[in-house]
UniProtKB/TrEMBL annotation:
GO terms for molecular function: ATP binding; ATP phosphoribosyltransferase activity; magnesium ion binding. Its cofactor is Mg(2+). Gene3D superfamilies: 3.30.70.120, Periplasmic binding protein-like II. Catalyzes the condensation of ATP and 5-phosphoribose 1-diphosphate to form N'-(5'-phosphoribosyl)-ATP (PR-ATP). Has a crucial role in the pathway because the rate of histidine biosynthesis seems to be controlled primarily by regulation of HisG enzymatic activity. This is ATP phosphoribosyltransferase. It is found in: Cytoplasm.
Length: 308
């Protein structure tokens, strides 16, 4: 199929995808993910872990999944909410910060547990700003004016928001602003610019979003089920242990399993093997309690998927 489209850059891409979807009479589902950047690798990984097979994602704008009716669009993260809102893509994977900032009307389908970060206000180490009210009348540089404005409004504070698109952290040093509002992960960038974190504005992680009209589409439901089974498997471990029948009840009380633990007799009389699933979050506490309850030879294995 040959497309002839006369326009430029972002608009060009949007029109290209629009023309593509008009000609795509089979109405294959489309998911937009970041082309390159912090969310790209994990977005690709989660789709591959769902059993989807696709290639050439580095070099193309669109890639077809060979074993599921889905096409993947590779875009700048900032454009993803709008593409999903406008129905050019049916689904998207993007940070909550970008969704809030773009004010896109989309359905949040599933938090994905990666791309976690916090948007913070930071001030210079020597700053006289000590409490939130001290930000009244002060200039704050940010790439997230909408989120910052919402936050300040909710606290009844009026500041002068200066929107800049990058390198926000150099603002105070250049005398451009009294404070900044930016994504902070380790704090290293703040430190090297003589800044210190001052207030948390928003926590964010990557989420799967959907166009408001597509959410109950059967293929979306199938994909969502696969994504949830991958996420659930990731946050759990498969455990096999041996225990004497005398201690079995104590051990079983500690192991909920998906339904309940599997208990299998061992060749040695009065001993059984217990198979179960435990949550990653309280893994070490659980293992120590199991040992104290009489569990021996504990094997722990990763789980690929949990389908409930
Ligand atoms: P693009 O070229 O797609 O516009 P970008 O440079 O705007 O990319 P990235 O730096 O790749 O964006 O960040 C993408 C998203 O990753 C952010 O919007 C945020 O949700 C998340 N993220 C997680 N940790 C961080 C971090 N330490 N700094 C910035 N973003 C982070
Ligand atoms: Zn971006």
């Amino acid at each position: 199929m040959i497309y002839v489209v006369f326009c430029t850059s972002k608009l060009f891409l949007k029109n290209l995808f629009l023309v593509h979807s008009i000609f795509n009479t089979l109405k294959t589902l489309k998911i937009a993910i970041q082309k390159s950047g912090r969310l790209n690798e994990k977005s690709v990984e989660i789709l591959k872990n769902c059993g989807l097979t696709f290639e050439n994602y580095k070099s193309s704008l669109i890639s077809s999944v060979t074993n599921f009716p889905l096409e993947i669009l590779f875009l700048r993260d900032d454009d993803i909410p709008e593409y999903v809102q406008d129905g050019i893509a049916d689904l998207g994977i993007v940070g909550e910060n970008v969704i809030t900032e773009t004010k896109a009307k989309v359905t949040h389908l599933q938090k994905l547990g990666f791309g976690k970060c916090t948007l913070k206000i930071a001030v210079q180490n020597s700053s006289s700003i000590e409490k939130l009210e001290d930000l009244n009348g002060k200039a704050i540089a940010t790439s997230y004016p909408v989120i910052l404005e919402n936050f300040l409004q909710s606290k009844g504070i009026k500041s002068d928001i200066r929107t800049i698109s990058g390198s926000v952290e150099i603002g105070p040093g250049l005398g451009l602003s009294d404070a900044i509002c930016d994504i902070v992960s380790t704090g290293g960038t703040l430190k090297s610019n003589g800044l210190k974190p001052f207030a948390d504005v928003m926590s964010s992680e990557a989420v799967l979003i959907g166009n408001e009209a597509i959410a109950d589409h059967p293929e979306v439901a199938e994909l969502l089920q696969r994504i949830r089974s991958v996420l659930s498997a990731k946050s759990n471990k498969y455990v096999v242990l041996n225990v004497s029948k005398d201690n079995l009840q104590k051990v079983v009380n500690l192991l909920p399993g998906v339904k309940s633990p599997t208990v299998v007799p061992l060749f040695e009389p009065n001993w059984v093997a217990v198979h179960s699933v435990i949550a990653e979050a309280d893994f070490w506490d659980k293992i120590n309690s199991l040992k104290a309850a009489g569990a021996e030879g504990i094997l722990v294995m990763p789980i690929e998927k949990i389908i409930t």
